[in-house]
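hey can u check if this looks right to u? its 300 residues, i copy pasted from the old doc so theres a chance i mangled smth
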Amino acid sequence: MHYNTPMRAFLFQFIIRLSSWLSLKTAHRWAEFLARMVWRWSEKQRRITTTNMRLCYPQLSPEDRTQLARDSLDETIKSMLELGLIWNKYSDNIDAIIGEIHGLGVLEQALAQDQGLLLAAPHFGNWEVLNLWLSRYPGFSFLYKPPGDPKIERLLLKHRGAGGANQITADAKGVRQIFAVLKQRHILAILPDQQPKSGQGVYAPFMGQSAHTMTLFSKVASKTRVPVVFAVAERLPDGQGFDLHFKAGPAAIYADTETSVAALNQTIEELVAINPSQYQWTYKRFSIQADGSKPYQKAT
């Protein structure tokens, strides 16, 4: 179904307001119901998620891949219905929904070097939780790709900035700001698994597939040599909150671009393994291929 720009902004704001009245547990129950409806009625979403499972988990049976695809759709919709709740109810008290923090020493050790910190935050679990938790660190900044709708962007800037995070657009001006943030020895977060435009990345293995991958993260790491940490917020069952996971970046992240990008994707794979259903499998991660193939194309 196609929505015009005003309708998309209205629906986004409606979801934020509605979800702000829910508990995590109730939001998750509604998400599971909506996910069943989307799975039933959206051939496109079924095709994207099942294609990703077929490509990335060939060792699973068709039944298990289908179940993982359905579970991933549940988790994606949970992320949507958590927005208002997290932004409006927990923006000043995010610790109330944080369970365990795995690898906190990794983060603290990196920060203790006082060189700045480059943080990779893949599309896993709920990034908004991680953003608010990291906003406790002065100067915390993250790179974002502006949505096509300026009204939605204003809402994102408002809610994501509630904790004090500095938001940097992914453009030429933003790249200059990245280096300024790191020079000031602050944390700079990038979501490194967004597929770049054709010609603006390199191909590297990811989940056994050739994935067109951004080089920006690797180039910033190589140029600045600041500590690199990977982080995700894992959703817990039954509305119990979120666990945070921090993982030290591999030494190869500072190598030549192709080696670095391969190391980047390998580390993301290790984080996906924490809970595979919570990775954003509704995204066409492999839509740009060197041979021109179209893995998500509808069968004729």
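The CA atoms of residues 117 and 227 lie 5 Å apart.
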